[in-house]
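Q: Structure for this?
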Amino acid sequence: MSSAEKAYLNTRVAMMATQLLDPDAIGRLSQMQLPELAERFHLSSLLDDQLSAQSRSRAIEQTLIQVLLSELQILVRPMNAPERAIVLAWGRKYALFNLKTLIRGKLHDLDQKEIRDNLFDLPPNISLPDQDLFRAENVLELLRLLEAGPHSLIARQAREIYEQRREPFALEAAIDQRYYAGLVRQVMQFHDDNLQPLQHLIGTELDRIDLLWLLRFRFSYQLSPSETFFQLVPSLRLLHRERLLGLVNIETFQRVLESLPPPLDALLADSHTVIDVQRHMGRYVAHEARRILRHSPSGVARALAYLMLREMDLFLLYALVQGRLLNLSSEVVDIALEITEPTCPWAGAAGGTKAA
Amino acid sequence: MLRPRPMKHVRLLVLTEDLPQASLALAETESFHPDTRPPLESELSGLPGRDYRDTYHQARSRLDKIAKLIPGAQHPELSEVRVIELAELTGLNDWLGQIWEKTSRYEEDLRRLDDQDRFVREQEAALSNFQHLNIDLGMLRSKTRFLDFYVGIVPRENLRQLEGAVGLAGHLLHVYMQRGENAHVVIVGPTGTKEAQLSAVLNAAGFQPIPIPLELDQKPEEIRGDLDAQRKDIRAQREALHQRLSDWSAGFLDRLVEARRTLMLAEPLVSLDPSLRSAGHLARLAGWVPAREVERLTARLRESLAMPFEIQSRDPLAEERKLVPTVPVKNRLLQPFALLVNQYGIPEYGEVDPTPLFAVTFLLMFGSMFGDVGQGAVIAALAWYFRAKLNRFWLFGLLAGLASMFFGFLYGSLFGYEDVLPALWMSPIHDPILMLKIALGYGVVFLVLACLLAIFNRAVIGNWWGAVFGHHGLVNLVFYLSLVWGGLNLGIQGAFGTAPAILVVATLAALAWYNWRHLDAPVGEKVLVVFIETLETVIGYVSNTLSFLRVAAFSLNHVALSIAVFTLANMMGSFGHVVTVILGNVFVLVLEGGIVMIQVMRLQYYEGFSRYFSGEGHAFAPLRLRHGSAPS
C-alpha cells in the first residue's frame, strides 16, 4: 500500500471509529424504544407492522450485516492484495453462516423458500459460490456438490452425518475450524510490519474462541481431550498448540481457568460458568481491539480491529432490537447489553456450565 | 456516427394473459431494453412474472444438471416461435424434476464408483510402499494384545491437528507417504479404553483405513493383480452404468432438446421480470427503444397481441439521462476499437461516442511511433493468421499493422533497413527536431479537440456553466490557446507577447473566480485551494502537451533500436548477421511494439478520455431470444 493509500485508509478508519459505541452511548440506547431506534439507525423495517416479529428481526439482522459489510467494502478499497484477502477472509464468516444454513436445511429436508429466507444477501466478494448448493434438490446431490467444491474436506463428515442420522454439530464445528485456520494462514502470509499487530489481533480473537470451545466441548458436551483438541485452532498468541494440549487434559472447569496464562488467569478468576467466561473474554477482545485501533501503525490491523468492534456494536444493537420486539423487560435487555451483571439464579444455568 | 442514437422511453400496458406473447414479440424486435424502475402508480404493485421466473429457473437448473450426464443439443435452432404459458412451463419443470431424480441416482452411482477407484489407487500406492519396508506387515493387520494399529489415509490439512489429538489418546502417528492432498499414516498405541475417543477423532479428521492383505509379505504380485482386477471391475461397472443411462435416456433425448427450446422461448419473459408490475389483470412494463424502432415495435405488438394494449413513448427526461442505454457501435471496422473504449467506460447517453476519433488517432500514433513496412506486415499477417482465435480483435491487429506499414513507406524503413526502400518522406532520424515539432503540434491539436468535445458534451445537456468554466471548458480552451500562442511567439520572436499574456491572465482569473464562488470553506482554505487549482491548470496543460513528445521519441527510438541491431549484426559472420537481424526484429516487434501500444493507450485514456469522456453510461442490451444462455 502506498503512503497515500495508507493515509486514506487511516483517515477512513478514524472517521468510521467515531461511530463506535462507548458505554454511555450503550446506556442511552438501552432507553430507546423501537421508533427512536428505527430513526437513529435507519431501520425502517422495524416499524413495518405488516411483518411478523420474526420477519422484522430477520430484516434488521440482514440490514445490520449489510451495514458492516458495506463498511468493509469501503475499507478494503485502498488495500493491496494480501491485506484485502485477510479482511475479506474475516468477513467470509457470514458466507459460512449461509453454508451452514444450506447444509442444515438440506439435511433436514426443509423447503427451498424456508432455506432462502434464512440466507443472508452478501456482496459477491464475500459470498461463496453457494447457488449450486442452493439448487440441489436432495441431500445426496448436495453432498456431491460439496465433495466437488472447495468444501470437499467437510463433505465426508456431512455424508456420515446424513447416513448415520446424526446432528450436524461436528460438521459445523469443522466449518468453523477451517474458517479460523484459514484466517491464521492469511496472517502468516505477511512478512512486514503488519504481521505483529495482525498476529496480536487475530491471536486474541482465537484465544477467546479456543477457550470457549474448549470449555464447551470438554465440560458441556463431555468430549474427550483428543476430540476437543482436534476441533481447536492453535492461537497465534496465548493459547498456542502446546498450551492447548495441556489445557484439554485438565479434568475440571475451574482448574482449566486457573491454568490459563496471564492475563487470562486473573481476568477469569471469578468466572464460574461459560457465560461468565464469554462475557469477560468478549470485553478482553474488545479492549485489545480498541488498543490496536488507537495505537497500531498497521492500517490493515486497525481496519480489522474497527470492523471487529463495529460488529460487536451491531450485535448489541440487534440484541436490543430483539428485546424490544419480544417485549422483554428492561432488566433482561440490560443484561444482554452488558450494562448490568446477571444476578438472577437462572442466568448461569440457561446457557452456561457450572464448574464440574 | 459520433452522436448517440436517439432513444425513446416506452411504456406498455397489456393484459396479464398476454404477457408471454408480448415478451416474445418484444424479443423478436430486439429493440426493447427493459427499464427496471418501479412505476410511480402505487396500484401497480403486483409481480405478475414471479411464478413464471421461479419455475423457469428451476426448470433451467434441472435441465443443465441433466445435460451434464446426458449430453443433448445446447443451442438448438428455433424452428417456430410460440408462446410458452405458465402451465406448459410448470408441466415441463415437473417432468424435468422426475428425469433429474432418476439421473441423480445414476450420478450418485458414478460417484460411488469414482470413490472406489480412488481408494484402490491409494491402496496400490500404499502397498507398493509397504513392499520396501523391512518389517512384519502382519503385525499391522490387526490389533495385538497390547497394541492397536491404524493404517490409512488422512487429508494433509488435518494432519498436524490429528497428530496432537492422537497423542492425547496415548497414540503415535507416523506419516510414511504423502500423495496429493492425502497423507498415508500409521497410528499406533496401547490397546485400551481410549479406542472410542480415538475413533471419533479419526472420523472427524476424515481418516480412511487401508486394509492390509494377508499375502502382502509373500505374494505382492498377486495382490497387485487383485487390485488391477478391482479397477477393471470398476471400469466395467462404470461403462455398464453409462450404457444403462444411455439406453434409458434414448427414449426422451428429443424431448430434452425440445425442453431446451421451450426454455429459450420462455426466457424473454423471465428477463422482463424485474420491470414487470401489475394491478389486477393489467400488467405494465417499461423500457428504452431506439426512436426509429418504436413504430416497428408497435406494429409487431399489434400483429401479435390478441387483446387490447396501450403503448406510450416519450423523449428521455433530463434527469433520466444516466438511465438511458447507449446503442453500441455497429461498424465492423470500429468494433475492435469500441472494445478498447469500453474498457474505459461506455458513453453516457447524449455524450459523443469517442470510438471513431479513438480509432483514427490510435492508428496515427501507433503507425508514426512504429513505422516499418516489414514489421507492420508481420503484425498484419499474424492478425490475419490468428483471426479465428482473436475473434473481432483481429481487425484491430490488421489495421495497426497497415498503419505501421503506411508510416514505414513514409520513413523508408523495411525491417529496420533504411536503404532498401526509398522513403516517401524521410526517416525520423534525419531530422529529429522536426519530428519533435510535429509531435508537439499534434499534441496541441489533440488537446484542443478533446476540449472542444468536453465543451460540446456539456452544452448538449444544458450544462452551460460547466461548458464555459468547468474542467477543459471554454475558458480553459482559451487559456490553452493563448498559452500556445505565447509559446509560439516566444519561440519565433523571443517574447511572449502582450495579447496572449493578457488572455492567459484573464482566463486564469476567470477560472479562479469560478472556483472561489463554488468553494464552501474558510477563506484561508479557499485561497489555498484556488491557488493550487490555478497552478495545476497551468502545469497540467504544459505537461500534457509535452507528453505528446513521446510520439516523436518513439519513432526515433525505433530507428535507434534498428541501428543497434545492425551494429551488432555487422560484428558477426554472414550466418550470425542473418540470425541477429531476425532475432533483433523479433525483439523490436515484441518489446517495442508492446511499449508503443501501452504509450498510445496511455495518451488516449489519460490525455484524451479523461478530458471529455465520462464513460458512465451503460450499453443497450435489448430483450432477445437467446440461444443457450440464461438471463441473470
